[in-house]
Design goal:
CATH topology of the largest domain: Rossmann fold
Number of helices: 9
Shape: globular
Number of strands: 10
Largest sheet: 7 strands, parallel
Strand content: 15-25%
CATH architecture of the largest domain: 3-Layer(aba) Sandwich
Order of helices and strands: EHEEHHEHEHEHEHEHEHE
CATH class of the largest domain: Alpha Beta
Oligomer: single chain
Number of domains: 2
Length: 280
């Protein structure tokens, strides 16, 4: 089987969606499934067991410009290009992970070629919360285009109950929904917990999330840290994600630099499956 993963964004912009896509693609590539990642921009990833294909940015940008700014559908310009990609790669399933406006364009074009399409929404590309200015759908152009594109998607995998509810509210039939939560290698945690219980070492935390402060719970970092300190628990907290350095606006975090390591991108790009317990 040949599966094409289309990522709205990928490394060096590191977040939960990017890590999960990389891990799943690497895992599948060790089976009889052939995986190729289709990206809009170049990536710095090195430990991929899967193939990487970069879309022609100039061609996509032309179609995007006419659709987004002029509301003109010139998708037919992409037909020869997409047709060649389909023939060359013999794709059985297209899996779109973390959508953007260009993803919606490609879904509509691919459906003209009767391609099977699965979509995994990650949150910001589906959910909306005006109170915290969260969600692509606050952009009316994206919201309208998404609602028209929904009918061209064969299956939806959802990560949480709230995403499932949002899909149903948009008219997605329940038989098209597949629960596929983010995976966790529990053996790593069990091994680490046993080790920590046998020594007086630091307790290490790792958070991978873009800086959507209230949506991702980053507004709770100070509260959680204070509770740990009050219980005399020694810890070190590594926080990784796009724009995560904005956390330094928090006075508590600035005043306790020994407790936190905040980086915007994962530095160790040589590991098969993120993330390791190498905290150095």
């Amino acid at each position: 089987m040949n599966i094409a993963f289309v990522l709205g964004t990928f490394f060096p912009k590191a977040g939960g969606a990017q890590v999960q896509a990389h891990n799943i693609a690497n895992k599948l590539s060790k089976t009889e499934i052939n995986v190729k990642l289709f990206l809009y921009n170049k990536t710095n990833i090195k430990n991929n067991k899967y193939e990487i294909f970069i879309f022609k940015k100039f061609l996509l940008n032309i179609v995007f410009f006419f659709k987004y700014y002029l509301n003109l559908n010139i998708f037919f310009i992409l037909n020869p290009y997409i047709s060649k990609i389909i023939r060359t790669n013999n794709v059985d399933i297209w899996h779109f992970n973390f959508l953007n406006f260009k993803s919606l364009i490609l879904i509509n074009v691919l459906k003209k070629f009767n391609q099977k399409i699965i979509v995994t929404f990650q949150g910001v590309d589906l959910q909306v919360d005006p109170l915290i200015n969260y969600g692509y759908r606050l952009n009316k152009k994206y919201d309208s285009f998404l609602k028209k594109t929904i009918k061209n998607i064969d299956k939806f995998t959802y990560l949480s109950r709230t995403i499932r509810e949002d899909l149903i509210s948009l008219g997605v039939e329940e038989q098209k929904l597949i629960y596929f939560p983010n995976s966790v290698n529990t053996q790593k945690f069990k091994k680490t917990i046993r080790k920590r219980n046998q020594s007086n070492e630091l307790l290490f935390f790792i958070t991978v999330a873009r800086f959507a402060e209230k949506k991702k719970g980053l507004d709770l970092v100070e509260q959680v840290s204070t509770n740990l300190m009050n219980k005399n628990i020694n810890f070190k907290w590594k926080i990784i994600g796009e724009n995560s350095k904005l956390l330094y606006k928090n006075k508590f975090i600035r005043s306790n630099p020994n407790l936190f390591e905040i980086i915007e991108n994962i530095k160790n790009i040589d590991e098969d499956f993120f993330s390791s317990f190498d905290t150095n």
